[in-house]
């Protein structure tokens, strides 16, 4: 495995993240363009159904975030470092690669939405064509370059710069959301929003909506310990993280949901492809300042995304410094941002990305949580997480039980998606997680008894 960095486990005495910092980090992580867009997509369920699903699916996901946050607080180790205990020192490369790819993807999602805002700014200030119009490619390319430079600046000082960005961003986002809410309710009433009917051909089933929200929120769970290991108090790593993430996602998703429905009510036309924040802000007449805030919220979210992707990359390449890992992931995320432009549809690319997350992340999260709380009884030998041939070496560095359960979980996810009852209720993600976690505990418990 090579020599591990001295900061693999952060001792309690060196932790500087306060409860407020943790709350701001997770509110800022969710109070962003992607969450707004999710709210707009969820409008296809209707207001009441979408609200119920957003609350329930998000709360379940962030219970998992609090549990992984607790593991990070107790061990002082990042999520992918913790995964070494369940997957093995080398086996942890699997969740690390998946975590790396999914956070690269989220960075690209937020970058694309923010680049759209930049293109709207260039349209308003310089008269450049918008994306989708003749000559609109120029504005999007400029937007992607601008956002990529801003992201590199935002991560220049590591976790400290993330905290500073979150503190500034959360204040501006508060002001922006209040402002937008006032504008929305000046145009339509709350009663009109509640009673708006989704066109039948565009209606989203409850199961698909549940999976969409689950995939969106579970993506943050694998970053939980990356930040909770810097927390001074257990409550900051658990309940504060849960509250911040839940407040952030409900707050901004509801704004996206209400704004999208308000446009549909006032215009008489609903198109989920036009649910992105820039399009809605422009149609609501919010002006240049709103677009600037949208750009800032992309920075707050992507500071967390890039930090998590960088940590995953550093887990694979032990000698790679986090600073250089962050630069690498920022560059790769810029390249991935062009995929929706190649496909011609951001919504299609986004939907496919969420399916990928639901398939691969759920079983990994289940395995990590079950291994720590049920198999290891909350007792990891942190020093052995860096030692070849130690407790977590398993078979040549890989716990093949964890790998096998992950493969089964990924396959079962698609089978559960075909079950009509789940399609019309809670979706496939959480049942798949329960099954994966139970199978892992069952096999590991059997092997443990057999070994004794």
TrEMBL record:
Residue ranges the record marks as coiled coil: none
Membrane topology value: Multi-pass membrane protein
GO molecular function: cytosine transmembrane transporter activity
Signal peptide limits: none
Subcellular location: Membrane
CC annotations in GO: plasma membrane
Residues spanning the membrane: 93-115, 135-156, 168-189, 242-264, 284-304, 324-350, 356-376, 397-416, 428-447
The keyword Ribosomal protein is annotated on this UniProt entry: no
Pfam families: Transp_cyt_pur
Entries under Gene3D superfamilies matching the protein: Hydantoin permease
Keywords, in A-Z order: Membrane, Transmembrane, Transmembrane helix, Transport
Family note: Belongs to the purine-cytosine permease (2.A.39) family.
Name of the protein in question: Cytosine permease
Organism name: Liquorilactobacillus nagelii
Phylogenetic placement of the source organism: Bacteria, Bacillati, Bacillota, Bacilli, Lactobacillales
């Amino acid at each position: 495995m090579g020599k591990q960095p001295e900061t693999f486990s952060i001792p309690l005495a060196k932790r500087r993240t306060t409860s407020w910092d943790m709350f701001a980090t997770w509110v800022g992580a969710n109070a962003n363009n992607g969450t707004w867009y999710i709210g707009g997509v969820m409008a296809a369920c209707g207001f009441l159904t979408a609200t119920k699903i957003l609350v329930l699916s998000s709360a379940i996901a962030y219970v998992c975030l609090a549990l992984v946050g607790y593991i990070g607080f107790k061990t002082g180790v990042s999520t992918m470092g913790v995964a070494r205990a369940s997957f093995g020192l080398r086996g942890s490369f699997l969740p690390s690669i998946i975590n790396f790819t999914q956070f690269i993807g989220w960075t690209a999602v937020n970058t694309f939405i923010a680049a759209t805002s930049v293109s709207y700014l260039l349209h308003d200030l310089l008269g450049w064509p918008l994306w989708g119009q003749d000559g609109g490619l120029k504005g999007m390319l400029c937007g992607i370059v601008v956002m990529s430079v801003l992201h590199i600046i935002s991560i220049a000082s590591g976790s400290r710069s993330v905290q500073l960005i979150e503190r500034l961003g959360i204040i501006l986002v508060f002001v922006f959301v209040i402002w937008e809410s006032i504008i929305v309710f000046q145009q339509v009433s709350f009663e009109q929003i509640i009673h708006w009917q989704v066109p039948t051909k565009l209606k989203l089933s409850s199961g698909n909506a549940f999976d969409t929200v689950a995939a969106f929120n579970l993506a943050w769970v694998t970053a939980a310990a990356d930040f909770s290991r810097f927390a001074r108090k257990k409550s900051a790593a658990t309940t504060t993280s849960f509250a911040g993430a839940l407040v952030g996602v409900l707050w901004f998703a509801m704004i996206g949901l209400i704004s999208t429905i308000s446009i549909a009510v006032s215009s008489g036309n609903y198109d989920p492809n036009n649910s992105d924040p820039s399009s809605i802000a422009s149609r609501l007449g919010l002006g240049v300042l709103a677009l600037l805030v949208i750009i800032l919220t992309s920075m707050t979210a992507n500071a967390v995304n890039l930090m998590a992707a960088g940590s995953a990359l550093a887990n694979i390449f032990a000698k790679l410094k986090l600073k250089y890992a962050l630069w690498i992931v920022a560059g790769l995320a810029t390249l991935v941002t062009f995929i929706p432009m190649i496909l011609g549809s951001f919504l299609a690319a986004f939907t496919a990305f969420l399916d990928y997350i639901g398939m691969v992340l759920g079983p990994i999260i289940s395995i990590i949580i079950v291994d720590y709380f049920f198999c290891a009884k909350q007792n990891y030998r942190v020093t052995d997480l860096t030692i070849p041939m130690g407790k977590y070496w398993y078979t040549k560095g890989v716990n093949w039980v964890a790998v096998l359960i992950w493969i089964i979980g990924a396959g079962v996810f698609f089978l559960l998606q075909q079950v009509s009852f789940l399609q019309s209720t809670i979706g496939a993600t959480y049942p798949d997680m329960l099954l994966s976690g139970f199978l892992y505990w069952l096999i590991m418990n059997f092997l443990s008894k057999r070994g004794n």
